[in-house]
Design a protein that fits this description.
Number of strands: 14
Number of domains: 2
CATH class of the largest domain: Alpha Beta
Largest sheet: 8 strands, mixed, barrel
Number of helices: 13
Helix content: 40-55%
CATH topology of the largest domain: TIM Barrel
Oligomer: single chain
Strand content: 15-25%
Bound molecules: 2-phosphoglycolic acid, zinc ion
Strand order of the largest sheet: 4-5-6-10-11-12-13-14
């Protein structure tokens, strides 16, 4: 496609923080994309360009200035465009132009090409990635903890995992979310639109979740420990006590024995590969051990994790790496290892639903799109439902 116009503006995300929304045009058609923002970010993530007060003025100026000058008026395939953006930035972690600036262009271009080809976005992603599209399991974050809720709960996310068609899975997830709401009546919402209760017993949220999922078919539970957030001085700090990695592994193993677990994400600090490897060797037959901050959607880090047999599933967040091309490569590296991929939103979200099309298009094992208490999260579920209808009518 020959790009005619490119323009970024500032919008605010679900936390009220600024982010970019970029519009790209070709052949009298326009597509818009906005980018999310993480809070428990991995240290090896591509760099989100922000000013000292969190503003994105420089990232916006980079899209409207340098990036526009480099691509407007020229013809690109999507892979050529993403490669040109990576080259133009010139740093290993997109710190010069900003991964947020680059990704907004990359997603908008992917969306525009689907429009030009008159096919659904998920179909265009499936074609580009060479994958088999299909409905992802819903990994719904129903109780928010960690940095997403002032550590009222020690782990960052307590999720209900639901298998099945999106229509069935969403109906189940919605009913489960509402049932949990009756039980947790009056508790506030956390960053990802789930309930943010406070319990001082480690097992209490799991007892509640186990009781909840026992009432629904095809459901199990999961956590994102986001352990780097409570790791200091070689110890893991949970509920006023501190634990070694081995102690923590024993805690997780005890939970996995007792409760119907599907997966544990980031069980250890992002730099503790050996602990991941030992843990995956002990529980990897039973549950998924998912890398997020550990792998940061980076194909090289996924390859390294494969050599170390450190995990058996990978979280895929396009904004951790900065282009759709590399996010697809991360999915391919994950599949090549024989592992499962779980596509994910960020804790600071916009109404953009790209991640739903991405998850469906690459046939991801699952999607994390948050709780039902926030409109930015609901948009993703509505899009997944629409995708399923589109796919049925083909
Ligand atoms: P983040 O959290 O978007 O704040 O990084 C999500 C996650 O850790 O999975
Ligand atoms: Zn995570």
């Amino acid at each position: 496609m020959r790009i005619d116009r490119l323009e970024a503006v500032m919008i605010t995300d679900s936390r009220g923080k600024p982010t970019l929304e970029t519009t790209i045009s070709a052949n009298a058609l326009s597509a818009t994309a906005s980018v999310p923002s993480g809070k428990s970010t991995g240290i090896h993530e591509a760099v989100e360009l922000r000013g000292p007060d969190g503003n994105v003025a420089e990232a916006i100026a980079n899209v409207n200035g340098e990036i526009a000058r480099a691509i407007v008026g020229k013809r690109f395939s999507l892979d050529e465009l993403d490669a040109a953006l990576i080259k133009l930035d010139g740093t290993p972690n997109k710190s010069r132009l900003g991964a947020n600036a680059i990704l907004s262009v990359s997603i908008a271009a992917q969306r525009l090409l689907a429009m030009l080809e008159d096919i659904p976005l998920w179909k265009a992603i499936e074609k580009r990635a060479g994958t088999t599209a299909g409905a992802p399991r819903l990994f719904m974050n129903v109780m928010n903890g960690g940095v997403h809720a002032d550590f009222k709960l020690p782990f960052q996310e307590y999720l209900v995992v639901v298998d099945g068609t999106t229509r069935e899975a969403f109906a189940t997830a919605k009913e489960a979310f509402e049932k949990l709401g009756e039980r947790l009546d009056g508790v506030p919402m956390g960053d990802e639109g789930g309930y943010a209760p406070a319990f001082d017993q480690l097992e209490e949220p799991f007892e509640i979740l186990a009781e909840l999922v026992a009432q629904f078919p095809h459901t199990s539970i999961a956590i994102d420990a986001a352990a780097s957030e409570f790791y200091r001085d070689g110890q893991y700090h949970i509920l006023d006590a501190s634990y070694s990695a081995d102690d923590l592994a024993r805690i997780y193993s005890g939970l996995v024995e007792k409760f119907p677990f599907h997966s544990i994400e980031d069980p250890f600090d992002e730099e503790s590969a050996g602990d991941f490897t030992r843990f995956t060797a002990s529980v990897g037959e039973k549950i998924l051990v998912i890398g997020d901050d550990f792998t940061v959607t980076n194909p090289d880090r996924i390859l390294k994790a494969r050599e170390e047999r450190a995990i058996n599933a990978v979280l895929i967040k396009p904004n951790q790496i900065g282009t759709v091309k590399e996010a697809i490569e991360a999915v391919r590296a994950t599949s090549a290892a024989g592992w499962k991929s779980v596509a994910s939103h960020r804790s600071g979200e916009t109404n953009d639903t790209f991640i739903a099309d991405f998850a469906y298009g690459v046939g991801a094992h699952g999607i994390k799109a948050g709780g039902l208490g926030q409109k930015e999260r609901m948009e993703k579920y509505y899009r997944l439902l629409a995708i399923e209808r589109e796919a049925e009518h083909k």
